[in-house]
Amino acid sequence: MTPTISIVVPVYNVENYINKCVDSLLKQTYSNIEVVLVDDGSTDNSSIICDRLSVENECVITYHKKNEGLGYARNYGVNKAKGVTGEYIMFVDSDDYVREDYILYMWNLSYNGTVDLVSCGITLEAENGTELSISTCRECFVNSSKDAFFNIYIKGIERYTAYSKLIRKEIALNNQFPKGYFEDFATTYRYLSQCTKVSFGDGGENYRYIQRQGSILNRRLEKKHLHCFEICEDIASYIQESYPDYRKYIVLLYETQLIQILNKQSMEKREYSNLFFKYRPIFRAKIPCLLFDKKISKSQKIIGLLLCTTPKLYKISRRTKKLMRNMR
């Protein structure tokens, strides 16, 4: 007997995407699933579509709630999932879709339910279906939550996102998402703290992440977008308490979040410079200590050094990198 895997799908104003998402889940080769649709106060036809999908498919259950954001919608779905202790939760975003072997692939990586958390790569896809990039994970089995934390939060070779994960249900129940942006960045390390075994897999072609216009990292810079740095402070405190030998790597938390905003967020020249200069002292103080650390990648070191310079030089380096990539 395979366990029930509950797939929690938070839904908000995705009338043009939700049918494709759910259809991909219903075609899975792993059959023992339930699809938990959480309508987070949609104002378009999403709620109607969800109700219809529930009527037409026995394994699809729809819940409606007031709008409170992605994290709270996921929490609601986890709390409503029927899977018992020892079974698993999975999150799929309602504008994404998955290949038919996705769940079976993830289950196989759990080694028949002996692993607490499974993570895999994704394919980034444009709304018109164009494949933009494939983000893969290095397939490995980890017997230590500390090693898993290092791979995800320090080296960045695995993803901290809530999607592309298979999580033991009791761990998801014990570590609910906070309200606000970057909720998965703030939660995955708490998942890991309760894991004994973690498995990483490649499988990047199986989860299709749709890059929509208007996503959080394609909007004008706002105060809420800087919440990621407050989360960095929380994770830094966790490192100080749980993994003190990782203290020197705390600067890499800020590096990951800063380059994500600098590279993708829309902002004026003054905003860009102010943000760059605000965090430059951190890199100037901490990056030199990591230059000869063999555990850190060359790209992390180069980016860290560039963040010690000027906004203009950082922008030039980005343009050069893009040009070289396009010439290949």
Describe it for me?
The longest helix is centred in the last third of the chain and has 18 residues, at 269-286. This protein has helices spanning 18-26, 46-56, 70-80, 102-109, 145-154, 169-174, 188-193, 227-242, 250-264, 269-286, 298-306, 311-327, and strands spanning 5-11, 33-40, 60-65, 88-91, 97-98, 117-120, 122-126, 131-135, 140-142, 165-168, 198-201, 207-211. Helix 8 runs antiparallel to helix 9 (250-264) and helix 9 (250-264) runs antiparallel to helix 10 (269-286). It has an 8-stranded mixed beta sheet, sandwiched between helices. Strands 5-12-7-8 form a 4-stranded mixed beta sheet. By secondary structure, the protein is of the alpha/beta class. Helices cover 41% and strands 17% of the residues. The mean pLDDT is 91. The protein is built from 12 helices and 12 strands. It starts with a strand and ends with a helix.
Q: What percent strand?
A: 15-25%
* Structural Rg: 20 Å
Return the structural class.
alpha/beta
Contiguous uncertain segments of 5+ residues: none
Count every helix, treating DSSP H or I runs of 4 or more residues as helices: 12
Question: How many strand segments?
Answer: 12
Largest sheet report: 8 strands, mixed
The main sheet orders its strands as: 3-2-1-4-10-6-11-9
Shape: globular
Task: Output the helix-strand order.
Answer: EHEHEHEEHEEEEHEHHEEHHHHH
Task: List the keywords.
328 residues; alpha/beta; globular; four-stranded mixed sheet; eight-stranded mixed sheet; 12 strands
